[in-house]
């Protein structure tokens, strides 16, 4: 077995700047909120395969949490996270405090995600993507990567990061990584830790809805949405937020061809999201 190398852990800007100045290029960054799992590990592995230096960031960003959301309760498991980073051969972990990231309190200047940030997750979590893009831009400025990796589990987030990189002329490659799932289909997510055993079983309905949607796809976008909503609506313990078919770039769903089914639902008090590809067929009536 290869020796596990401990990453350099930095918590302040000056130490990060020193570690970054010493880094060999190209530099890859994986941003996380911690409570790391095999989904994060997949991002770290792709980063390792692409770059001489891998930087992971661990920061639970208050700016992207609504007043009634789970900021205080969000799992903080730094020791275990560092074990995963060591296993995945991460070079540098940046784990700042809120005060390090926001020394002047909540920033007045925020990245506006535009209309794409107001639909789906943005409609259910007002201000969410302003908070996400603001911290992503700050972390990009602090870590100065050549390439960044984001998970497709948070499909709209990757689309918005790509949009920001394009719109603001950031010279950074954005790589989307396919969703890592449990063998039974549940998408890995830090918030899965909130689920009781029965709730975890209930949560399998999201993956089942993606399968039902994909099977209904020859009938078109309406048929996909109906199949997913019927399945989720008839599952006890699921409170459906949305089941929506869009184009792969999150524009209006096409008549036929590749599209995306995006889901959000609450299982008990835990809000989960998932998405998957659907191939819309000729029987589309939309
Ligand atoms: N199952 C997964 N497969 C691939 N990437 C993932 C998966 N889960 C999370 N990621 C990615 O890891 C990065 C960090 O995400 P984050 O730390 O918020 O974890 P998370 O599991 O999505 O947490 P939460 O449950 O709070 O949404 C994001 O780019 C996210 O898309
Ligand atoms: C990109 C991110 C680290 C910004 O806080 C977060 O939204 C996440 O973990 O997906
Ligand atoms: N995984 C995206 C971050 C969030 O839900 O707050």
TrEMBL record:
Amino-acid positions noted as binding (R)-pantoate in the UniProt annotation, renumbered to this chain: 64, 157
Function summary: Catalyzes the condensation of pantoate with beta-alanine in an ATP-dependent reaction via a pantoyl-adenylate intermediate.
Gene (name only): panC
Keyword Nucleotide-binding annotated: yes
Entries under SUPFAM superfamilies matching the protein: Nucleotidylyl transferase
Catalytic machinery residues: 40
InterPro entries: Pantoate_ligase (IPR003721), Pantoate_ligase_C (IPR042176), Rossmann-like_a/b/a_fold (IPR014729)
Self-association state and partner proteins as the record states: Homodimer.
UniProt-recorded Gene Ontology molecular function terms: ATP binding; pantoate-beta-alanine ligase activity
Catalyzed chemical reaction(s): (R)-pantoate + beta-alanine + ATP = (R)-pantothenate + AMP + diphosphate + H(+)
Family recorded in the similarity comment: Belongs to the pantothenate synthetase family.
Binding positions for ATP per the UniProt entry: 33-40, 151-154, 180, 188-191
Name this polypeptide is given: Pantothenate synthetase
Misc: The reaction proceeds by a bi uni uni bi ping pong mechanism.
EC annotation from Swiss-Prot or TrEMBL: 6.3.2.1
Record key words, sorted: ATP-binding, Cytoplasm, Ligase, Nucleotide-binding, Pantothenate biosynthesis
Enzyme class label: ligase
NCBIfam families: panC
A GO term from the CC aspect: cytosol
One GO biological process term: pantothenate biosynthetic process
Binding site for beta-alanine: 64
Localization of this protein: Cytoplasm
């Amino acid at each position: 077995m290869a020796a596990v190398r401990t990453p350099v852990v930095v918590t302040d800007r000056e130490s990060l700047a020193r570690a970054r100045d010493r880094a060999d290029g190209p530099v890859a960054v994986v941003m996380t909120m911690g409570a790391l799992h095999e989904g994060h590990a997949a991002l770290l592995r792709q980063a390792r395969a692409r770059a001489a230096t891998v930087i992971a960031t661990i920061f639970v960003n208050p700016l992207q949490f609504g007043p009634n959301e789970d900021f205080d309760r969000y799992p903080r498991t730094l020791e275990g996270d560092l074990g995963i980073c060591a296993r995945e051969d991460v070079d540098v972990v940046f784990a700042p405090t809120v005060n390090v990231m926001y020394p002047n309190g909540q920033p007045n200047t925020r990245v506006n995600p535009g209309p794409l940030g107001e639909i789906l997750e943005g409609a259910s979590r007002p201000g969410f993507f302003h908070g996400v893009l603001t911290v992503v831009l700050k972390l990009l400025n602090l870590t100065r990567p050549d390439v960044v990796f984001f998970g497709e589990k948070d499909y709209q987030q990757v689309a918005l990061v790509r949009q920001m990189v394009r719109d603001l002329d950031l010279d950074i490659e954005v790589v989307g990584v396919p969703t890592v799932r449990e063998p039974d289909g549940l998408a890995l997510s830090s918030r899965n830790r909130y689920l009781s055993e029965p709730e975890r079983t209930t949560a399998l309905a999201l993956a089942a809805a993606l399968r039902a949607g994909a099977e209904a796809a020859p009938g078109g976008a309406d048929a996909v949405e109906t199949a997913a909503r019927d399945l989720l609506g008839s599952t006890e313990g699921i409170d459906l937020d949305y089941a929506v078919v869009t184009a792969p770039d999150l524009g209006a769903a096409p008549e036929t061809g590749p599209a995306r089914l995006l889901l959000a639902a609450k299982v008990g008090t835990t809000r989960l999201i998932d998405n998957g590809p659907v191939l819309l067929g000729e029987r589309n009536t939309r």
